[in-house]
Amino acid sequence: MTSMQNGQSKKKLDIAIVGGGLVGSLEALYLAKRGHHVSIYEYREDIRQTPLVRGRSINLALSVRGRRALKDVGLEQKMIFEHGIPMTGRMIHRLDGSTYSIPYDSRTNQCIYSVGRNYLNGLLLQESESYDNVERYFNHKLSEANLEKGSLTFIKTDTKETVKVTADLVVGADGAFSAVRRAMMKQPLFDFSQKYIEHGYLELCIPAGEDDGFQMPPNYLHIWPRGNFMMIALPNQDCSWTVTLFMPFVNFKKLDTEGKLLDFFETYFPDSIPLIGKKKLIEDFFGGSPSSLVAIKCRPYHVKDKALLIGDAAHAVVPFYGQGMNAGFEDCTLLDQLFQKHHDNLVDILEEFSETRWEDTFAISDLAMYNYIEMRDLVTRPSYRLRKMFDDFLFWLMPNFWVPLYNSVTFTTMPYSQCVKNRKWQNKMLLFCVTSAAVLAITLYFRGLQ
After folding, report:
1. pLDDT at residue 51, rounded to an integer
2. Which among 46, 84, 235, 327 would be 20 to 30 A from 428, CA to CA?
3. Within 10 Å of residue 191's Cβ, how many Cβ atoms?
4. What is the DSSP secondary-structure string of 206-220?
5. How does residue 7 score in pLDDT terms, banded at 50, 70 and 90?
């Protein structure tokens, strides 16, 4: 197949997607619906045929941006009603074991959904099999790429065979350590930065109760905020909980014996021990090792009309705003809109995507970094709860005028950069009101003394 020339013809494109994860498999569905021929090349085995991989099973928080994308490809209802578990707010666990809830949206009671990474990835891949114009190739590791020519060389990891591919468009959806991005970094004027945070994460598990039910209220994201570190838990379909401990690596290194581990949990997460079980806690903790968290920013996202980065390959973020997958899915939605707008003309599509998307992805990256501080520390402070009550009240009073930051990020498709601008404006308004009130109070006080 040949690509369109200057938008004059509308021939179907031959598109190679490197990466068959969540974003790559979703993008394949979007492109297949438009009639293009799509080949997915995935480094790993078919996730539907392999057991769960430890360390990659962090639950995902599906919100409006991700739901919009799944709706476009006909999978939203199946995902929400057959697998997703609604979470209406945060359940905060104090040191003494008591809890209190903070709703995400007290005005309209919107929620996010806890979904399994492997289940969703398998669902997307399964859906791709309903299209004759989608082919899937697993165990294909990208070894060389000439992006300006659209040529790729893969090594089949099972047979060591070399496979050469040429495509009208190469889409790099191969994650935070993208091989496509590595090839793109050879291009002049390509900006790239990465930042590892000092905190790592390690997965634990709260099993289902003796009655095969949930051991905690299921419709919440449970958080144990402890200042410099925290633990969270998201519900699973089998009534277990995926528990993730986020903590500086230096703290992980100190917990090198079973006694130190149990003492640490008795001190900071005492109510979680009977839920996890001491034996299982020890097995899970020492059965793995803490993984790192990286944020990546780069631009531009394309090479001429031949290659494009999307998802984590373009903008990996730390997971604390629950927007990594949602932002990647939104890439696919925006890209589809550009295909429609520019009538499949790759020159215009790729250029506009690069020019318009980077500001929003940079914004959500910064927000995710900030939200870790909020989740592990600020949620316990009276000032945080007071501000949230104030935001919720104004949102209830003027829903089209005052939208809290979290609501705009999670429950709308407002550009991330605009969400940040709104928050800055709201902060200025609050500062003005507080300052004015203080001046008025002081003025009235001194008048009363006269």
Report:
1. 67
2. 327
3. 10
4. E---TTSS-SS-SSS
5. very low
